[in-house]
Design brief:
About 25% of the residues lie in helices and about 35% in strands. The chain is of the alpha+beta class. The protein has a five-stranded mixed sheet with strand order 1-5-2-3-4.
């Protein structure tokens, strides 16, 4: 199966969020072809969630998994370390009062 390029996936995700009037920003632009993508969802209360795409062996498909939940600043600290270790990393920040991320619609 052909893999969708990271840049194209991010562009599609940003468009999906725009349709829902949800603010989103690329805070780290990784490798256009195969960079890993992390999604940070910032809620109104100052908390945040961090998601990463993994492969679900049971269902034989990609799935987005919450890998961290905490204060916005705590997640930023982790992301800064990740960006140093992986210059190909993409980070998309989503501002969502309710925490809705629409990741279940895109794989």
């Amino acid at each position: 199966m052909a893999r969708l390029r990271s840049k194209i996936w991010v562009q599609a995700y940003l468009k999906r969020l725009e349709i829902q009037n949800t603010a989103a920003y690329v805070t780290a632009h990784g490798d256009d072809h195969s960079g890993a993508i992390l999604i940070k969802v910032i809620k109104k209360d100052g908390s945040a969630q961090l998601y990463q795409k993994t492969f679900d062996l049971q269902n034989n498909r990609n799935a987005w998994v919450k890998i961290l939940e905490g204060l916005d600043m705590e997640i930023d600290t982790l992301l800064e370390k990740q960006k140093v270790n992986d210059p190909d990393l993409w980070v998309v920040e989503v501002e969502s009062a309710s925490g809705q991320n629409y990741l279940d619609e895109l794989y």
